[in-house]
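Human: I hope this is not a bother. Would you mind checking the protein record under this note? Thank you for your patience.
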Amino acid sequence: PKPGATLVQVKCMARTRIPTPHGPAFLHLYHNNRDAKEHLAIVIDPAQTSDDALAAPPIRSRSLDAVWSETETEAERIIRGAYVGRLSPTLQRPSNPTCHHSASISVMTGVPSPLIRIHSECFTGETVGSMRCDCGEQLDEAIRQISQPITLPATSSRMPTIIPGRGAIIYLRQEGRGIGLLSKIRAYNLQDMGHDTVTANLMLGHKADERGYELAGAILRDLGLGSDHAGVEGVRVLTNNPDKVEALLRENIRVVERVPMIPRSWQNRKPKADAKNLDKYLRTKVLRMGHMLPL
């Protein structure tokens, strides 16, 4: 942290299973000491529900699994999400607060580091389906890519093996690149007047991008992902934004690879209603913000 700044602390308050079109995910809700927002982590990890031999350590929240009070009951732990396996009317097993998950299970040879994405909230793109941006598509595509099965090559002791994908999306409440929904809506009007996203933000007195990633680093550490400690895996980051990679490195997150995020609409560009808005948005990202996306 900067001199005089408070060290960012996060605590996972609840966790639950979410069925998605791409497979199961576990939604984690975090509180923190930096702002009053509820940030999220979407964890995709077969070890959460499988009793089979694990190819890699489970991705679990340290703060959620910790003992919160001397009087807490197993039922309280389970209800907040500190359980193992899959909940059912007949099966409820609380997690072990003393279990050091990463240290107790080694990574199978050939298993790639978890794939993660740092994603910022976008009401217009994710809820309304706005074509001014590709945020909704990127969120869905990130879940799909992380969920993809992984083929491990054959070794002297095993045949080629297919394992489920694993990783996490850190979902930060940073609407409009950090300027908030009110300013974002006003910026849209400026865009309709001919300005791009960067200029519109500047005209409203904001920076081109006001997001921060300290909370993302803290959440990743809580999940045991990318910490620069012995026995902890590095991460592959799904992004076109080099600033995100640099920000994670400053948070001492060990990034082993940047994986391009090529929007489906960019791969298969076809004439359709309002496509020019999305095209202008993506070109601005590349030409004015340094994103690594082929034009």
